[in-house]
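Thread amino acids onto this structure.
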């Protein structure tokens, strides 16, 4: 399996509002292609997120993996995790991107306090017979220095991923993370959470 392509981190909201329009157009085109279900011969729900927010700093300092299926939960999560990076409305509340929860699910992954990472990236979402498998990877980097930390940069990396609606049919959503730590090494997937 090839390594995921790592992209330059986006500005959280400014680019996301434009991306949101494009993502919703993709979802509408996908749904208009038939009965609203992905083709039965294709097990992959999404090779990547429709829209993603990812970065090295958020306000969630503990490791967490969440499935968000409702607007109120999404607003609360966004305001908790990213209040300092969001544009503000006239009442000084952080603006929260709109998500169509009738067609989409948000997967929120927080890695907690750590070192040298630019965020988390969604590799794939696959609908298998017994589970829905989600794979994520950390966009990490190496540093060197003379100090006691060797130039390490403290981070609280996160990834918020809008994907086509995940099924609620009793199958668990298993989130796996690539834990290999060698540059260019093969992926080593380890279960991170069951949702």
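Threaded sequence (195 positions):
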């Amino acid at each position: 399996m090839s390594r995921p392509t790592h992209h330059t981190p986006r500005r959280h909201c400014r680019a996301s509002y434009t991306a949101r329009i494009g993502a919703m157009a993709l979802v509408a085109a996908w749904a208009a292609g038939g009965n609203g279900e992905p083709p039965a011969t294709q097990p992959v729900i999404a090779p990547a997120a429709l829209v993603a927010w990812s970065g090295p700093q958020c306000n969630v300092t503990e490791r967490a993996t969440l499935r968000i299926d409702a607007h109120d939960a999404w607003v609360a999560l966004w305001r908790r995790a990213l209040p300092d990076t969001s544009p503000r409305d006239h009442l000084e509340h952080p603006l929260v991107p709109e998500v169509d929860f009738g067609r989409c699910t948000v997967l929120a992954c927080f890695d907690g306090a750590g070192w040298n990472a630019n965020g988390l990236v969604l590799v794939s979402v696959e609908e298998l017979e017994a589970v829905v498998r989600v794979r994520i990877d950390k966009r990490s980097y190496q540093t060197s220095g003379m100090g006691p930390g060797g130039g390490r940069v403290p981070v609280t990396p996160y990834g918020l991923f809008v994907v086509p609606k995940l099924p609620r049919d009793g199958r668990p959503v298993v989130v796996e993370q690539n834990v290999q730590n060698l540059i260019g090494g093969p992926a080593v997937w380890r279960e991170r959470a069951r949702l």
